[in-house]
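User: Hello! My lab partner asked me to get a predicted holo structure for this protein. The small molecule is NAP, SMILES included with the sequence. Please write out the structure tokens.
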Amino acid sequence: MQPTTARDLSGTVAVVTGASSGIGEATARALSVLGATVALVARRADRLQQLAHELAEAGGQADPVEVDVTDADAVRAALDGVAERHGAIDVLVNNAGVARSGPAAEADLADWQLMVEVNLGGVLNATHAALPHLLAAASGTRGVADLVTVSSASGRRVPKPESNVYAATKHAVGAFSEGLRQELGPQGVRVGLVEPGFVVTELTAGRDFGEREALQAEDVADAIGYMVTRPAHMGVNELLVRAVDQVS
Ligand SMILES: NC(=O)c1ccc[n+]([C@@H]2O[C@H](COP(=O)([O-])OP(=O)(O)OC[C@H]3O[C@@H](n4cnc5c(N)ncnc54)[C@H](OP(=O)(O)O)[C@@H]3O)[C@@H](O)[C@H]2O)c1
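Assistant: Hello! Below are the structure tokens for the protein in complex with NAP.
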């Protein structure tokens, strides 16, 4: 079935990285409700299987794809496989990420390298693999394709010294996204960045969110759903989303 407007994701295929928990899982659920077939990318296969099962039970279609986003060859094979099985990739949500914050003088270099490899390298690997498919989809009946990257409020400014490398990776994906936007927009690929503040997920486990209602993964998923369901001529290039009482 082909979609009739860009608001309706029926007939489209979306890839969500980091779909095994948190924002990625919530985004996969939201895009499935909007009608997309969703490829669920992450390493924890059991979680992906469970989510795919739940989405299918609810009437959706999901494809669990166990892959480490730092492995460029595996990511390419995985995304080519998704396009082959489902006919296209209309939407890529680059969401997989890790956070290891702390004083630089006490840091383990491996933690810094991991953040660069996942938060930046993973985005590059998935984007490079998806681009031919997104460009092909953009020239199809929907008339547009979507590339959304989950950055962070820490991609706009460095909130505290301990954010050092995490903020650096998020600033980097912001610059990459803007370059892509300028190049790919004229070819029908909308490029957008979501910049959440603190969200209740495994990544922020143990954090004190204070007394007011914290931002949930579903809130960020809602923002992503908004971005990819605009009319084809309208690009939402950047969304900063924070709990109403988050100050920094
Ligand atoms: N929570 C926040 O406050 C917050 C704020 C701003 C931005 N963000 C960003 O939001 C994104 C999602 O984070 P989250 O808060 O939802 O955390 P989360 O629940 O820990 O989810 C992280 C996801 O990334 C996946 N992942 C990590 N390393 C991977 C790898 N090498 N290959 C494939 N998948 C990998 C994990 O899956 P597996 O472990 O199964 O591979 C998991 O699905 C991240 O980019 C994060 O930087 C979060």
